Amino acid sequence: MLVVMEEIKNQWTQSIQGKTAIGIGIAFLLLLIIAIPTLIESWTNSDSVKIDGKSYGLNDIKKSSPSLHSRYLSEVTNTKKEIFSEFAEKKILEIAAKEAGLDDPDAVLRQGFTPTEISEQELQSIYNQYKSQLGGRSFADSKEMIRKQLMMQQERQFTQNKQRELIQKYEVAFNIQEPPTVRHDVPEAGNPSLGPKNAKITVIEFSDFECPFCKRSQEVNKKLRDKYKDQIRWVFRDFPLDFHENAMYAHMAANCAIPQNKYWEYFDILFQNTGNLSKSNVDYLATKAGLDKTEFQNCMKDEDKLRAEVEADMKEGQKFGVTGTPAFFINGIFVSGAMPFEHFDEIIQKELN
Questions:
Q1: Distance of alpha carbon 338 from alpha carbon 274, whole angstroms
Q2: How far apart are CA 33 and CA 26, in angstroms?
Q3: How far is C-alpha 213 from the chain's CA centre?
Q4: Quick check: is 214 in a domain?
Q5: Residue 25 lies in a domain
Q6: Rg for the chain, CA atoms, rounded
Q7: Are 92 and 148 members of one domain?
Q8: Best CA proximity match to 177, nearest among 45, 76, 47
Q9: Which residue from 261, 245, 263, 255 is spatially nearest to 300, judged by alpha carbons?
């Protein structure tokens, strides 16, 4: 009887312990279920902005403003490239210095450099070329400074060539994941264009005649058009910035060149005069571009219509994420700023291939 009672007691104890374990497990599971949404929200909104008590993270930006999110991804990728490039530069110098038995990695770039002596004739030639910028100093007072500058230029050129050789020698190759391509369906909206409508590449440029960066980018733009010829179509849309006081008038005037089929002639002259776009000069440049003066003046009288056309372009650009100039859409891919030729060329090559 005592044995039976003991067995019943043991079974009852095990049952209680089992139920307790199950209860603890269920409680833990409930807590986990409650906590998971909070943990997910905390993780997804680790980078966020709180507005009126509510947090907005990258997913919110992606949903409400795809162009802004695309810019974020692009800038993060560019930062990665800069960081890895800087690291690679230092690392190959360390490796090369170790192989050459040098304590100073930077000395690798100067190793083997022998400056070429600058002749008196070369110094005199440079002096004559830049005499107006030397504050009236004589050749005798200036030649040593010129010599040092030319020597430094020689060394810079040598170190740049050396760096390129080291990159090839140690086979530097970057493996950085590019952000997903985001395309925007930016309309041409009947704006002035160069190139055939069936071109494989369409570039829509939002720019400002008074913007110095826009002026600088025109050289790159022309180089791209010269290279790709009928493969590229270029569309220009107005985006005069508010703080450029003469820009709006210049863009309105440029649109008055369209009926006379002189837009691109006027376009080039306006950008050549980016720093001098007063109303009187803009009017003068119109005649210089070959526009009929009377017809131009009559067109400019309809100020409300012209301003509305320019502002429509600006509104469209803002819709697709344009906040500054120049801004480009290459087959819908957003590129912001006056980037070097190679940057545009790389995108175009990928699009063609």
A1: 15
A2: 10
A3: 12
A4: yes
A5: no
A6: 33
A7: yes
A8: 76
A9: 255
Q: Are residues 164 and 198 in the same domain?
A: no
Is the same domain home to 82 and 157? yes
Dig out the tokens for 132 from the structure: 């107006």
Helix, strand, or coil (residue 61): helix
Largest distance between two CA atoms of the chain: 125
Q: Is 275 helix (H, G, I), strand (E, B) or coil?
A: coil
| Token representation of residue 306 | 């012209």
Place of tokens 């994941």: 177
**198 lies in the same domain as 331:** yes
Residue 96 shares a structural domain with residue 225: no
For 130-159, the pLDDT digits (tens) are 888 888 899 999 989 999 999 999 999 999
> What backbone torsions phi and psi does residue 298 show, to the nearest 5 degrees?
-65, -40
Contact 235, 192 (CB under 8 A): yes
Rounded Cα gap, residues 144 and 137, in angstroms: 12
- Asked, for residue 225, whether it belongs to a domain, the answer is yes
Residues 202 and 156 in one domain: no
> Which residues form the domain of 155?
67-169
Amino acid identity for residue 252 in this structure: M
Label residue 312 exposed, middle or buried (CB < 10 Å: 0-12, 13-18, 19+): middle
Domain termination residue (choose one: 115, 137, 169)? 169
CA separation for the pair 243, 290 (Å, rounded): 29
- 316: nearest Cα among 123, 67, 80, 134: 67
The predicted-structure confidence for 29-71, as pLDDT tens digits, reads as follows: 555 555 555 555 555 457 899 999 999 999 998 888 877 888 7
**pTM, to two decimals:** 0.62
DSSP 195-238: S-TT-SEEEEEEE-TT-HHHHHHHHHHHHHHHHHGGGEEEEEEE
* Cα 148 from chain centre: 36
Q: Are residues 154 and 214 in the same domain?
A: no
